[in-house]
Specification:
mainly alpha, globular
Length: 532
């Protein structure tokens, strides 16, 4: 048994190496690794699942090398082997996709799309969603060309892949061999709950990679403007919902766009849209401190997604339910829900969605007290986000889940290293709200170690950045934090200056109240020092 387990691990590692080499544009090296797996399996213990994976890697390598004959031979082998396995959805889907790739080798757009699929490491589940969306978008090739131009300019690989696939399938006739294989593949994928429904293609592609940076916000605004001018109500509604999602992702608790999108989606009768809106409403309710209402919305979303046969949406709603149960102190329910979603998504190769589910699971395990598992799961989430090119998501997984787990384990140095890595990623992504959050978290960790000097330096950076961007709340909070820290260092004059700066920066009632509270604490501390 040990030998078989070791062989399986070895086969998996070699196939993984082959796929990595394909992403690095080394098809010859990938072919060598995949053939090594095939030779090992066929001369030793049979492992049909690994054999199919290796055959599919061979197909990718031959497609990259432009050898259609050998690619077809390997795809046919994979298909025959998958049928002999019986009901094994992932193997059947992988083999069906291999045949699609062979049939798509004809056109230039197809070859470019296939190259990008290899570069982003798209799984069969991710490719199925992209292809299903491309079939719907193929009616508007002009829009696909515009998206392709923009995606190339901004180096957005997922959007570029989608646009090229759209242009490729637009050239296929209904009865062509390539279209027939695509239909077969998508039928297998749909049985596994990979359902696109009436979701706007651009919106769905965005969710595959995930982002809520300023660049992403600008793209959503552009889509919203174009849809409004063209009178495309569905595209306008989905773009509005994306804008709500992006703003919620930046830490806002309640956004008007969510109400607007809900009304628009209800008006056009989009079941998928209403389910997604309920999911976003759950996020908003939870951030506003209303877990009961959040749970109700998440449960309604989960029910709707289940009725639609949308496994991805159902998993996301299930995770939202888990978070609401967690806030309500209902740990058994949270654990039960959070444990299942990552597995369902991983089986379908949906890395981005799986990473989100793993982040939720990490939070649940941490609340349970299982800190080791919380760290492990959060690191898996960060790795998956890095793999799909979502550096912002990776940064927040490191900052919120990994660093938090290290703090609970009293490993402050490790938490500080992780927070610093998160800060670097957010700076590189030019995500100002994220950068401010990472700066504040890193300052807090320095204080946990008793390092007041670097903490002050980071808080001063928060003050500078928030002042320049007009973020009054963060500027006031940072001034108040500096004032308190100066008190701890027995620096009364500097503490007073920080508190006065907070009062000057404050413009709203809440911000001013915080500033006054900070001033009061500083003055009280000064009186205590005088008395002493």
């Amino acid at each position: 048994k040990i030998d078989k387990t070791y062989q399986a691990m070895s086969h998996g590692a070699l196939v993984g190496r082959a796929l990595a080499l394909l992403r690095q544009e080394d098809p010859s090296g990938a072919l060598e690794c995949a053939n090594e797996v095939l030779e090992s399996i066929r001369s030793g213990s049979p492992d049909k699942a690994a054999e199919i994976s290796a055959l599919c890697a061979c197909v990718d390598a031959y497609v990259a090398l432009g050898d259609a004959t050998k690619a077809l031979a390997k795809a046919e082998e994979a298909s025959t082997l998958a049928k002999s396995l019986g009901p094994t959805p992932s193997a059947e889907a992988a083999a069906a996709l291999a045949m699609v790739k062979v049939k798509l080798m004809a056109s230039q757009e197809s070859q470019e799309a296939l190259a990008l699929l290899r570069e982003i490491g798209a799984s069969w589940g991710e490719t199925a969603l992209l292809l299903a969306l491309a079939l719907r978008a193929a009616k508007e090739p002009a829009q696909a060309r515009a998206m392709l131009e923009r995606a190339r300019r901004l180096q957005q690989r997922w959007q570029e892949t989608f646009a090229l696939l759209t242009l490729a399938v637009a050239t296929l006739s209904k009865g062509s061999p390539a279209m027939a294989e695509i239909d077969k593949f998508l039928a297998v994928a749909q049985k596994q709950g990979l359902h696109s429904g009436d979701i706007d293609p651009a919106s769905s592609v965005r969710r595959l990679q995930g982002s809520s940076t300023m660049e992403d916000m600008q793209e959503i605004h552009d889509r919203l403007s174009a849809a409004a001018k063209a009178g495309q109500r569905s595209a306008q509604a989905w773009a509005t919902l994306d804008l709500a999602d992006a703003k919620l992702g930046q830490g806002l608790m309640k956004v008007q766009e969510l109400e607007d999108a809900t009304a628009q989606l209800q008006k056009i009768g989009s079941k998928e849209g209403m389910a997604m809106a309920k999911l976003q409403a759950s996020r908003s309710q939870l951030s506003c401190g209303r877990p009961v209402e959040a749970l109700t919305d998440a449960q309604l979303a989960a029910k709707s997604f289940k009725e639609l046969g949308d496994v991805v949406g159902e998993a996301a709603a299930t995770c939202a339910c888990a978070l609401a149960h967690l806030e309500l102190g209902q740990l058994p329910e949270a654990v039960s829900l959070a444990s299942k979603a990552p597995q369902d998504l991983a089986e379908r190769g949906l890395r981005r969605a799986c990473a989100d589910a793993l982040r939720v699971a990490s939070q649940v395990y941490l609340r349970m007290g299982d800190q080791e598992r919380a760290v492990q799961v959060a690191l898996e989430a960060a790795a998956a986000l890095r793999d799909v090119g979502d550096s912002r998501g990776e940064a927040f997984a490191l900052l919120h889940e990994v660093a938090s787990a290290y703090v609970f384990r009293k490993e402050v140095d490790s938490a500080l290293n992780v927070a610093s890595a998160s800060l670097r990623l957010l700076r590189a992504a030019e995500d100002l709200p994220g950068e401010l959050a990472a700066l504040k978290a890193t300052a807090e960790l320095h204080l946990c170690r008793g390092d007041t000097e670097p903490a002050l330096r980071l808080l001063q950076e928060v003050i500078s950045l928030s002042h320049d961007s007009g973020d009054v709340a963060d500027e006031v909070d940072a001034h108040v934090s500096c004032a308190r820290l100066r008190v701890l260092r027995c620096e009364a004059p500097e503490a007073t200056l920080s508190a006065e700066a907070a009062l000057k920066a404050a413009k709203g009632e809440m911000a001013e109240a915080k500033a006054v509270l900070g001033m009061a604490k500083v003055l009280a501390a000064k009186e205590e020092m005088k008395a002493a």
